[in-house]
Specification:
single chain, four-stranded antiparallel β-sheet
Length: 290
């Protein structure tokens, strides 16, 4: 009976890993091309040459239904561009409103701040955050925070105590000055940092779930943020290996701990992940182990 030479038996593992990489790259390419198509379509339809062609087509009656459809799309793109430009240039805006409660203090007068944060992953704006201020009394010289939609993981009370105290400390008679621009600037910086970390964790989770098995047959099973601030990432492998990646506010890696199923730390993998330096490059480092 003829026995096959084991040295020429194909290894299916590199092929599977290579296929996973190809699928991941194809998905990323499809997403990039879709976004580029939308950008080029908007640029083409709103260009002066396209506007001139549509004007000539409109001047020749009867105007086709296709021309009317293009004009509608152009108007939508223009409105969206104007809105995007405004929201990007004015990351925080103030407005006046009124509390509908008939018993509201200060006649229900409300001063509001709207904070915008752009999502680089989906290329859309997140729902805005709001800060609403009122005066405890109509004669009060200071404002206080009435309501807000800031996430609990953002230390708004600490920032308010520092930049926007509503009452003087017990050892002072005069109220401290309130600095609304500093409060909003620091708050928006924290919100942008928070969303950048969340976006990075979501992107890494998506990439790692399509990562192939390593040389030991192991594969990433679950990836999730380990805390509300997205400052820590938890990674689980099929074999029971668990990893914890601590992230700085800027997105740089701070600390990595990987524990094998026998309770011992996996130092080599920890160092490989740390070489990524930033959370976005973690899949690339783990792919080297695949």
């Amino acid at each position: 009976m003829e026995v096959a030479n084991p040295s020429i038996v194909p290894d299916s593992q590199p092929t599977a890993v290579s296929l996973d990489d190809e699928i991941l790259r194809a998905r990323q390419e499809i997403q990039n091309l879709s976004q580029r198509r939308a950008t080029l379509t908007a640029a083409l339809l709103t260009s002066p040459s396209s506007q001139s062609l549509l004007s000539h087509a409109r001047a020749k009656p009867p105007a086709s239904q296709h021309v009317a459809s293009l004009e509608k799309r152009i108007d939508e793109y223009k409105r969206q561009n104007t809105q995007n430009t405004y929201r990007i240039c004015a990351g925080a805006t103030m407005f006046e409103s009124r509390d509908p409660d008939p018993n509201a203090v200060d006649g229900g007068r409300i001063t509001g701040v709207r904070i915008e944060v752009y999502n680089q992953h989906t290329r859309t704006f997140n729902p805005p955050y709001y800060l609403l201020f009122n005066r405890p009394k109509s004669t009060s010289p200071s404002l206080c925070i009435h309501r807000h939609t800031i996430p609990p993981c953002i230390p708004l009370p600490t920032l308010a105590a520092k930049y926007f105290p509503s009452s003087p400390p017990t050892n002072q008679k005069r109220p401290m000055s309130q600095n609304l621009p500093h409060l909003v600037r620091e708050l928006r910086r924290m919100l942008v940092s928070y969303h950048r970390r969340k976006e990075a964790v979501d992107k890494v989770s998506e990439e790692l779930k399509h990562l192939g098995r390593g040389h030991d047959g192991d594969k990433v099973k679950n990836i999730e943020a380990a805390d509300a601030e997205a400052k820590s990432l938890r990674i689980e492998w099929d074999s029971g290996v668990e990893g914890r990646v601590d992230i700085e506010r800027s997105g740089r890696l701070k600390r990595v701990v990987v524990v094998r199923e026998d309770g011992k730390r996996w130092r080599d993998l920890e160092m490989r992940i740390l070489r990524a330096e930033r959370i976005e490059r973690v899949p690339e480092m783990l792919r080297e182990n695949s």
